[in-house]
Design brief:
The complex is a heterotrimer of chains A (605), B (173) and C (366). In chain A, helix 4 packs across helix 10, helix 8 runs antiparallel to helix 10 and helix 16 packs across helix 17. In chain A, strand 16 and strand 17 form a beta hairpin. By secondary structure, chain A is an alpha/beta fold. Helix content of chain A is 30%, strand content 17%. Chain B is an alpha/beta fold. Chain B starts with a helix and ends with a helix. Chain C contains 15 helices and 8 strands. By secondary structure, chain C is α+β, with helices and mostly antiparallel strands. The chains are: A alpha/beta (605), B alpha/beta (173), C alpha+beta (366). Chains in contact: A-B, A-C, B-C. Chains A and C meet through helix 1, helix 2 and helix 4 of A and helix 2, helix 6, helix 7, helix 8 and helix 12 of C.
Chain lengths: 605, 173, 366
């Protein structure tokens, strides 16, 4: 290596810089704008922010805290908290921006702040910025920096060609790998738990999939829902609608993950978990009328406290709407059986084929048990009164669906279906009818001709998105914004359904009162019409004196919301006859009623 | 030299047959060895070209009640990095010092001694202070030491007395 | 004569960082030296065990202030080895750019910094300007000047565009044009010659015994560079030399750094022309809050401006690292080296010794 030689004049060579322009910036006269990607002080759009707290979770320095906003009643899918950043701790890494589920949290180019009061360094980010100068946006999240996984793992379905004439379950369920990938997307914010009517511990059980600990997953589920097999298949998944990931991507498939746990937890583990929950604390006996979601849920939780529980079910099989309403291709009998089996295993007595009022007197129940809980649901069809609706080929959904299930289960006689069918209604039940009819038509005629007419506009259809999409794949045709006017009958035979354009669903006062434009009509050819415009309760099992004493609001029974009691303190009610409208609400209702009944019995001792 | 050949060489030349090597990547592999063998084995490795001691460290396997002592050696001629591990019990942890093979080990061992409480027989600095002056708790890198609790006990938390969370309405207006 | 105990601490103008040496001095000559770290101890290794794999990226740059990127790189490399995670080709080139720019910044600061202990105060001011220009590049690429948090397991956080590439090229051209000035004002300066030549000698045996790596070892004639012997990223595809010297004293060690800056510029030029297109980051499964790394351990190492720098990482397959040990490049010379090598040095040369050996306190004092 040649080393430099010492040179006496070398140090003087620096003098040339005396005549050059300085490279330094004259602060504060001269301002220096930060670079485009600069990670400066935060800004947060309070309108977009939902307070999920994911920023606080990723924060490496614990600088972000979620603080409750005073006097703020957060809407569904939002928490009443907003992030507060401690600039004494923040390291400006920007991970909070990378992971922000809504994209409300951003970073600005602003980087100078001075104050002698240290307290002002605790900053509530908003649009104004720390210096209240609405700073320019700096660092932006992009695809590479994003710390969320926005894409949902696609569920595998049986193709529509294969499933169109089969009542076998067509959703295949996640494999282990798929379930783990899907579970890994969850940020554990818990907004889903708040939204779920039953407040299921969703982040916790999703976590158990990620940690390969399904036993704990089953435990978490039975904390709040004794029907996980059923809900894992047909829940209306309100949780997914509010999932924080859905703000920028696709929501977590919470329902399918739930199904994954119950389908894959080993049988013995499952039994152990469920059976270990039972205590012997409670003393008393409870009668439950109706083995639907609410009844079963109430029975499970009452039994776990230790009470003797008897369920009276008028049908041959327990399950109510789950057994007789929902078609088999969505909810196979095995799933229902499994849930009910465990409820029976912990010691709940289910008296099948026992109609109260006929096979056993209501007064007898009152004598035998301390408390009676009624949860008989909405199992009767609601009738449509238009011209021609009394024709025998006009079939109500709730008359038809049980027959289809019986046909599939026991190979009983196939229900009558015509070659051309119209279904009135655009809800989930209408789709259940339409898709069941389509399957029967495929079996009988080898082709599908089902038309649905719904009052609602296309974007407001009450049916779930999956139903609409899958129905379309199976050949259902839907006519939204069409109100039924008349069923055309010639020579005692149905020729079709006349509908008119529906302009408005509600009147000025906000009451349901569809307004039809009679000038714009359409005729849907059909020789059979199904009506699925809602269900109604049937209270004929209640003695008249009790019916008189009960208070009603419309078709539903009015109860004290806190105590779940009707106007008689020993008579409790829940499920569709009180709240509605779906299974998970029934489960929640049953659970709450169980707690209320427990309180009542204890306080009466 | 290729990793395979290096491993072959070590297995053939060094007396113990049961040594199992595991590849981490092309130039890095690990081996577990009995505590009694450690001096002999490391001396042997130094003689075949693993001249540089990169690092001595420890891992606290609290569930197995063991400490793992890890030696990282590098050979520039063989272009290989070897991780030699040995396990010692967590109660009264002792192991022979290697300062006679590598003088620099004095400080690495001191470091482990201070943070884990492992005693290196032969190292003059056992129990003396290096990084932690006036330390009054259990060795801090042990898994059962909770730094959060420690700092909560020792240091006051900054209080923001004037902080008020604002109301949402103020922003909308 | 009576021996005097001296506390050579951070208050000394020639001392870099919060590090001190307890000296026992006889006259002007050091008789005994004891390194005294601990003033900067922040318990990083413990903190890292309690942070998510991703969150740690924000913590580790602090282990070495002037050259934070090596931390991010070794952490990422070790994690990638355990997880067997592929790094996209473009990201490897981008990492090389960052690492070499950081090397230039540190070496320039080190070359200029010699003005501190020797009193040539023009040089540090100039050198800080060069460093600042490189920090401007960092700000453009990563969004921050000092702690970049740019290199992450699986690649780098953001891609860069043509405009930034051009900016890098202009900047390194600019810096290169001024290298001659440093040559003149430092390496030809009679003061520097007088103070540095023959000062703080280091023999090959000493270097090997202590485990010194980097410019310190190379100045004794050992041609060892992690980039050549354990090629990482794309260093095996790049053409560059490893400057070495035969006789090691403070002057040669400093001059080697100067030659390394030239090599780094050469490397960056090649990268700028060769960099391929493509994606820059492979991510782990799911959201960052749930990232897990497979069970296993690995040691990731790079050639930092002071020598071999590495992280030893143990994972048990969970969301948090089980154990991380930082192997600072200046650990051997900064602790054992001081004890074994500093005695015999004259008191006024102590800071020259520490400066040219490359003792970086935060990486010793993790």
């Amino acid at each position: 290596m040649d080393k430099p030689k010492s040179n006496f004049f070398a140090p003087f060579k620096g003098i040339k810089y005396m005549i050059q322009k300085p490279v330094t910036i004259r602060v504060p006269e001269e301002e220096r704008e930060a670079q485009k990607r600069y990670r400066g002080f935060h800004t947060n759009d309070w309108e977009e922010c939902i307070g999920c707290g994911t920023c606080a979770d990723i924060c490496p320095t614990d600088a972000i805290n979620m603080e409750k906003v005073p006097d703020y009643d957060a809407p569904e899918g939002e928490k009443d908290e907003r992030p507060v950043i401690d600039y004494g701790r923040c390291c400006f890494c920007g991970f909070c921006v990378d992971i922000c589920t809504t994209g409300s949290l951003k970073m600005s180019k602003d980087y100078i702040y001075m104050d002698e009061d240290a307290d002002t360094f605790l900053y509530i980010p908003d649009e104004e910025g720390l210096n209240k100068n609405y700073p320019k946006e700096g660092y932006e999240r992009n695809e590479d920096t994003d710390l969320l996984d926005l894409e949902r793992i696609a569920m595998r379905y049986t193709k529509s060609k294969k499933r169109k004439d089969s009542f076998l379950e067509y959703v295949k369920g996640f494999s282990k790998e798929e379930a783990k990938r899907e579970a890994a997307r969850c940020v554990e914010c818990g907004i889903c738990t708040d939204r779920c009517p039953a407040h299921m511990d969703i982040p916790e059980y999703i976590n158990t999939i990620w940690d390969d600990n399904l036993e704990e997953g089953v435990e978490w589920m039975y904390e709040t829902n004794p029907l996980p097999n059923i809900c894992g298949r047909v829940c209306t998944h309100k949780c997914e609608d509010v999932c924080t990931i859905s703000h920028r991507g696709e929501p977590i498939a919470i329902r399918w993950l739930k199904r994954y746990i119950v389908d894959n937890a080993p049988e013995d583990v499952y039994e152990e978990v469920v059976l270990s929950n039972v205590s012997k604390e409670g003393e008393g006996s409870i009668a439950i009328i109706g083995a639907g979601p609410a009844g079963l849920s109430a029975a499970y939780y009452l039994r776990t406290i230790g009470y003797d529980v008897d369920i009276y079910e008028k049908e041959e099989l327990a399950g109510g709407v789950m057994r007789y309403g929902i078609p088999r291709y969505r909810l196979p009998d095995e799933a229902i059986d499994k849930d009910i089996l465990f409820i029976e295993k912990i010691g709940v007595n289910i008296h099948r084929n026992t109609k109260v009022g006929k096979d056993i007197k209501f007064s007898k129940l009152r004598e035998k048990h301390d408390v009676v809980f009624i949860s008989t649901g909405f199992m009767e069809p609601r009738h449509l009164k238009i011209k021609g609706s009394d024709h025998p080929d006009v079939v109500a959904a709730m008359d038809f669906l049980p027959k289809v299930r019986d046909f599939v289960r026991d190979k009983k006689q196939m229900p009558e279906v015509a070659e051309k069918v119209v279904v009135i209604g655009g809800g989930d039940v209408a789709y259940d009818v339409g898709r069941s009819v389509a399957r029967l038509q495929n079996i009988k005629y080898g082709k599908v001709d089902v038309t649905l007419t719904a009052l609602e506009k296309k974007e407001d259809l009450p049916a779930g998105e999956d139903e609409i999409q899958e129905g379309k794949e199976e050949g259902l045709e839907i006519y939204p914004a069409s109100g039924p006017v008349e069923i055309i009958i010639e020579n005692d035979e149905i020729k079709g359904l006349k509908t008119a354009e529906c302009i408005a669903l509600f009147d000025d006062k906000g009451n349901f009162n569809p307004k039809l434009n009679k000038d714009n009509t359409e005729i849907h050819e059909a020789s059979q019409v199904f009506i699925s415009i809602g269900q109604a309760p049937n209270y004929d099992y209640l003695p008249d004196n009790i019916k008189e004493e009960l208070e009603f609001k419309g078709p539903q029974i009015k109860i004290n919301e806190k105590t779940h009691q009707t106007s008689m303190d020993w008579l409790f009610a829940g499920g569709d006859i009180v709240n509605g409208p779906d299974i998970i609400n029934g489960v929640a209702d049953g659970h709450n009623a169980a707690k209320a009944i427990d309180d009542y019995i204890r306080s009466n001792k | 030299m290729e990793q395979k050949k290096v491993i072959e060489k070590i297995s053939n030349e060094y007396g113990i047959k049961k040594i199992k090597f595991k590849k981490i990547e092309n130039q890095q592999f690990k081996v577990k060895i009995n505590k009694k063998e450690i001096i002999n084995f490391l001396t042997y490795l130094k003689n075949i070209g693993f001249w540089q001691l990169s690092l001595i460290t420890a891992v606290d396997w609290i569930d197995n009640n063991q400490f793992e002592i890890v030696y990282n050696l590098v050979s520039w001629e063989l272009e290989q990095h070897i991780i030699v591990k040995t396990f010692i019990p967590r109660e009264n942890p002792r192991i022979t010092s290697i300062i006679n093979i590598w003088p620099v080990a004095k400080y690495y061992e001191w470091d482990v001694n201070e943070y884990f409480g492992v005693v290196f027989d032969g190292n003059p600095n056992n129990g003396k202070e290096l990084f932690l002056e006036n330390w009054d708790d259990k060795p801090p890198m042990r898994k059962d030491f909770d730094p959060l609790n420690y700092s909560k006990e020792k240091f006051p938390e900054k209080e923001y007395k004037n902080f008020r969370m604002k109301r949402k309405r103020e922003v909308i207006e | 004569m009576k021996e005097v105990k001296l506390f050579h601490g951070p208050n000394h103008p020639g001392m870099h960082g919060n590090f001190s040496v307890h000296l026992t001095v006889d006259g002007d000559t050091v008789k005994k030296a004891k390194p005294n770290p601990g003033m900067l101890h922040r318990g990083f290794e413990k903190l890292m065990e309690r942070r998510l794999w991703m969150s740690n990226i924000a913590l580790i740059p602090r282990v070495c202030v002037p050259e934070p990127d090596i931390n991010e790189t070794v952490y990422s490399m070790a994690v990638e080895k355990i997880e067997e995670l592929e790094v996209p080709e473009r990201a490897k080139y981008l990492r090389v750019i960052i690492l070499e720019l950081a090397r230039i910044a540190v070496h320039m600061m080190s070359i200029g910094g010699i003005g501190g202990p020797t009193g040539v105060y023009t040089a540090p001011n100039w050198a800080l300007n060069e460093r600042d220009m490189i920090l401007d590049i960092f700000e453009k690429i990563t969004g921050h000047r000092i702690y970049h948090m740019y290199i992450v397991p699986g690649g780098v956080r953001q891609d860069i565009n043509e405009e930034i590439l051009e900016f890098i090229e202009n900047t390194i051209n600019d810096i290169e044009s001024r290298l001659k000035d440093y040559y003149e004002i430092i390496f030809e300066s009679p003061i520097i010659h007088k103070r540095l030549k023959g000062t703080a000698p280091l023999t090959k045996e000493q270097a090997l015994d202590w485990g010194v790596t980097g410019p310190g070892l190379r100045s004794t004639g050992v041609k060892y560079d992690v980039r050549k012997k354990f090629p990482y990223l794309v260093y095996d595809k790049l053409d560059f030399d490893i400057p070495i010297a035969e006789e090691s004293d403070a002057y040669t060690r400093l001059y080697l750094k100067y030659l390394e800056v030239k090599q780094s510029i050469k490397i960056i030029r090649q990268v700028l022309s060769d960099i391929p297109k493509g994606k820059v980051r492979n991510k782990l499964m799911g959201t960052a809050l749930k990232w897990k790394i497979k069970e296993g351990e690995a040691y990731g190492k790079v050639e930092s401006s002071r020598g071999e720098f590495g992280y030893y990482i143990v994972s048990t397959g969970g969301r948090y690292p089980y154990r991380i040990q930082v192997r600072g490049a200046s650990y051997p010379q900064g602790l054992y080296g001081i004890e074994a090598g500093l005695p015999g040095t004259r008191l006024e040369d102590v800071s020259i010794w520490l400066d040219t050996m490359g003792v970086c306190s935060p990486e010793v004092d993790r």
